[in-house]
Design a protein that fits this description.
The chain has about 140 residues and is mainly β. The chain folds into 2 domains: about 50 residues, no CATH class; about 80 residues. Helix content is about 10%, strand content about 35%. It has a 5-stranded antiparallel sheet, with no helix packed on it. Strands 2-1-3 form a 3-stranded antiparallel sheet. It is globular, with a radius of gyration of 17 Å. The termini are far apart. Pfam families: zf-ChsH2. It comes from Pararhodobacter aggregans. This is ChsH2 rubredoxin-like zinc ribbon domain-containing protein.
Length: about 140
């Protein structure tokens, strides 16, 4: 067996686009960054090429609080990511700044296990060994 066959496959890395570059640049610094429309003030989801409200293209990066509300979660029992074993909990979280924007995060600590939908969350970033930061749930209300 060759060395490449015995090593776990590398985790897929994000490829920033013009739309997602502010998000990934913020993530590298540990900050949740989305773009806000200069014309109408609406936050745009990470993949939006234009403002979803007025279709304006003057979107400027803005650092957000990381506060969100639990919308739902699922537990994967299969090997969900290269180099990681299950189960893995994936959470949908609506941002406090604009609840129409729902982001997906990992719950690595299990803090949402008993939390009902609507529970306040704190989102942030964790860096695995390869240095790329991914969105995680830092805490849920009433949890450490």
């Amino acid at each position: 067996m060759t060395q490449s066959m015995t090593q776990a496959p590398a985790r897929p890395q994000p490829v920033p686009t013009a739309e997602t570059r502010p998000f990934w640049a913020g993530a590298a610094e540990g900050a949740l960054v989305l773009r806000r429309c200069g014309a109408c003030g609406r936050l745009a989801p990470p993949l939006a090429p234009r403002c979803p409200e007025c279709l304006g293209d003057s979107l400027q990066p803005e650092t957000l609080s990381g506060r969100a509300t639990l919308k739902g979660r699922t537990r994967l029992h299969l090997q969900p990511l290269p180099g990681r074993s299950g189960p893995l909990v994936i959470v949908e979280a609506a941002l406090v700044e604009d609840p129409r924007i729902v982001l997906v995060a990992l719950d690595e600590s299990g803090c949402t296990a008993e939390a009902p939908p609507g529970t306040p969350l704190r989102l942030g970033f964790a860096a695995p060994d390869d240095g790329t930061r991914f969105l995680i749930v830092l805490s849920a209300e009433g949890q450490p």
